[in-house]
Amino acid sequence: MKGVRRGARRYVLALLVTGLMGLTHADIANAGPAQHDVLILVYHRFAERVTDSMTVRPDTFRSQLRYFEDNGYRVVPLSDVIAWHAGGPDKLPPRALVLSVDDGHRSVYEVLWPMLKARAVPVTLFIYPSAISNASYAMTWDQLRVLAQSGTFDIESHTVWHPNFKTERARLSPDAYRRFVHDQFRRSRERIEGELHRPVRLLAWPFGIYDTELEAMARDEGYTNGLSLDAQPVTPRSNAMALPRYLMTQHCDTSCLRGMLRNAQAHHD
């Protein structure tokens, strides 16, 4: 499974970085998404020593946030974006920005939280329970409880153990595949709710893989929204079960960020 995961992540990274970096400085001048577009960022790990593209150094993270702040962005809770997208009465500030982190790596507790604690910045975590209090790289349930009680972290589902649904569909019969998917959705939600005593209604698609069948099964299991890895802004027309996010990496420098804003503007136009 680790080999499949690495391969899929490399594919996603290549796709997103290519799309963001293939823009000239002339193209990106004075770029920025429209007032009613929202950027959702997704991170994975934080550390001074970078061992893979998914690990972001603390100073890189700070510089990325500083760039967005300097360009008029304001970090808001994902729940506010969900309500806005559903047509609720609450309005979002211009250039709203959401921070999310997938997988439940212990660096969220050890590195990210200390950086954000004094600022009370809202963050949504998407975790897969099989790793929590089990894998050496992951947080513990006690640490997640601390984050949940801080008032700035929302903790949602990333399935039970982060499967590749394309691989599972190919190896299982249609009935077995549907049972497998329902089990991944149900057990993750029930475990997180049982440990943290908070409702879980959001699902981040492992490897960004989703389709209409998966979306229907997720809704059957009580999820109201899904989050993808499509490098686009969220607009009122976005699919509620595949709200797009931008994959953030150590290699996303100023040029990458400018390209991201240009990409968002082009999508709106």
TrEMBL record:
Cleaved signal peptide residues: 1-26
Molecular-function annotations in GO: hydrolase activity, acting on carbon-nitrogen (but not peptide) bonds
Matches recorded under InterPro entries: Glyco_hydro/deAcase_b/a-brl, NODB_dom, Polysacch_Deacetylase
Record's protein name: Poly-beta-1,6-N-acetyl-D-glucosamine N-deacetylase
Gene3D superfamilies from the UniProt entry: Glycoside hydrolase/deacetylase
UniProt source species: Pandoraea terrigena
Domain of life: Bacteria
Pfam families documented for this protein: Polysacc_deac_1
Presence of keyword Hydrolase: yes
